[in-house]
Amino acid sequence: MDSSTAAQCQEVEAAMGGALRLAALTGCRAHERCTGPQIRKMWQTRPEVYGATERVSLVSSFMASLLIGGYACIDQTDGAGMNIMDIATRQLREDALQAMAPGLEERIGKLAPAHAVSGKIAPYFVQRFQFASSCLVIQWSGDNPNSLAGLTLSNPGDLAISLGTSDTVFGVTDSPEPTLEGNIFPNPVDPKTYIVLLCYKNGSLTREDLRNHYAERSWDIFNRLLEETSPLNGGRLGFYYKEHEILPPLPEEEVDEFDPASEVRAIIEGQFLSMRGHAEQCGLPVPPKRIIATGGASSNPTILKIMASIFGCSVYTSQRSDSASLGAALRAAHGWLCNQQDEFVSFSNVYSGRDDGSSLSMKLAVPFGDCKRDTELLNSYTLLVKKRMEIEQKLIERFSQRE
């Protein structure tokens, strides 16, 4: 949620030839939360601290460092969120490092594949907690890459949508298209493919605000209002922002508000229309093969039904909520297996034949394509996605002119 490094982001993008070029090279434009601009701010505002810093770690590599008793490498997947790694070569870029701060390369160290071994467990853990001295520590990564692994989202065409405090959309592609909105990361469980991630600050808290205002603080009333309105909402589109948005913030005829039922449908449809539009721009296929929905709102079947209609595919839900920690465990097993065989092996070898009736199994929440109405509605939503993206672009241009 940090937005204190706007000046540094502008400086980095200018040094790298613009926001789009930076995105094409490193996987995303300079977002305020990205590690590179954060490091630059530290160097500029607290040079004595930066000068005394021997190593810069991500949270993931720092935790791995604690386990091995030495500096662990940053993994290539989490490292892609720093604005300093070339997503094509998966190595640090000299020009990007120079755009951040002097002497950064030696502070960052080497990058490593996500399935690689960080090292053996430190003697401290062997002596105090009786770990086997041969225990291997596999590269740690971030929550989103681990969630992808935990949801077994490994094939191009798969899509996951997390409806939490911050809504996120992530999927697998073998032909990423860098844009100013999304983030592209190497796939932690398949070196040949990439993850496309879209992140929205305005998720569950923004939906809850609108629920409290129009639906008497009740999700039951919220759902009833949703069901009272017809799909496409009579052409009513709304843009809802409690927080300054990451994806373009931001109506041909403008009104202050709709009736309560239309407001409720507008915030749900609007978010999914935006997700679909930006996912397509980043190279994710629509319709996806399937969607796996996670997060708090994934327990709401009325909301999931709208998701299925807009994206044009069936929606599944995970049997457990902690997909990131499950994914970390699966990745540890995968890294161990790769080390045992001294080569990269398919991630599916870890869970193949074990996903039915276990925590890896997915439950069909909303089917799609069983009737002609599904296709007709998808076609109508496709037109509405285009209209929303056009309005969004007009709003961006209008607000840019005011600044």
Structural summary, described in words:
The strands form four sheets. Strands 9-10-8-7-11-12-13 form a seven-stranded mixed sheet, with helices on both faces. The protein has a two-stranded parallel ribbon with strand order 1-4. By secondary structure, the protein is α/β, with parallel strands linked by helices. It contains 17 helices and 13 strands. The protein has helices spanning 6-15, 19-26, 35-45, 47-51, 59-68, 76-79, 94-100, 104-108, 123-129, 143-150, 204-214, 219-228, 260-281, 301-311, 323-341, 348-351, 372-402; strands at 74-75, 85-86, 91-92, 111-112, 117-120, 136-138, 158-162, 167-173, 183-186, 194-200, 290-294, 315-318, 362-366. The chain is 45% helix and 13% strand. The mean pLDDT is 90. It is an enzyme of class 2 (transferase). Pfam families: FGGY_C (PF02782), FGGY_N (PF00370). Residues 159-336 form the Carbohydrate kinase FGGY C-terminal domain. Keywords: ATP-binding, Carbohydrate metabolism, Kinase, Nucleotide-binding, Transferase, Xylose metabolism.
Features:
seven-stranded mixed beta sheet; alpha/beta; 13% strand; 403 residues; 13 strands; globular; 45% helix
Q: What topology does this entry show?
A:
Elements (H helix, E strand, L loop, with lengths): L5 H10 L3 H8 L8 H11 L1 H5 L7 H10 L5 E2 H4 L5 E2 L4 E2 L1 H7 L3 H5 L2 E2 L4 E4 L2 H7 L6 E3 L4 H8 L7 E5 L4 E7 L9 E4 L7 E7 L3 H11 L4 H10 L31 H22 L8 E5 L6 H11 L3 E4 L4 H19 L6 H4 L10 E5 L5 H31 L1
Parallel strand pairs: 1-4, 7-11, 11-12
Antiparallel strand pairs: 2-3, 5-6, 7-8, 8-10, 9-10, 12-13
Helix pairs in contact: 1-3, 10-15, 11-13, 12-13, 13-14, 13-17
